[in-house]
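Field log, afternoon session.

UNIT: design team B
ACTIVITY: writing a sequence onto a fixed backbone
BACKBONE:
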């Protein structure tokens, strides 16, 4: 059974640290203080989103379809991943681009109900 290393403490939420590495083949062990990669710090939900994002080559329309979520939700999830990786989010407050929403509606990318929700600033 393969257990994945967790990046955050389930008790306090602080970052975890690896202190021992072992080889299953020869039995060699190395002890010390090792940091985890940035992606280990993502939640399972964030890792799933990153996988879908990469699989769809960043195509927001395809990500919306696969996950069944709206454009603002995709963007919020992406911002959450960016922040969890230690970078400053670029968009703190989602801006409403009415022209883009209307173009997406006109192109059949979103329904009229989704357009109304987007114009209201809802996800």
């Amino acid at each position: 059974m393969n257990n994945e290393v967790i990046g955050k403490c389930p008790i306090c939420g602080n970052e975890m640290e690896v202190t021992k590495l072992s080889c299953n083949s020869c039995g060699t062990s190395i002890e010390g203080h090792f940091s985890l990669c940035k992606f280990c710090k993502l939640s399972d939900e964030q890792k799933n989103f990153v996988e879908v994002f990469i699989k769809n080559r960043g195509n927001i329309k395809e990500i919306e379809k696969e996950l069944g979520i709206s454009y603002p939700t995709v963007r919020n999830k992406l911002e959450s991943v960016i922040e969890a990786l230690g970078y400053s989010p670029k968009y703190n407050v989602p801006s409403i681009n009415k022209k883009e929403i209307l173009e997406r509606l006109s192109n059949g990318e979103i329904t009229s109900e989704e357009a109304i929700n987007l114009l209201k600033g809802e996800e």
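LOG NOTE: The longest strand covers residues 29-34.
NEXT ACTIVITY: expression trials, pending approval
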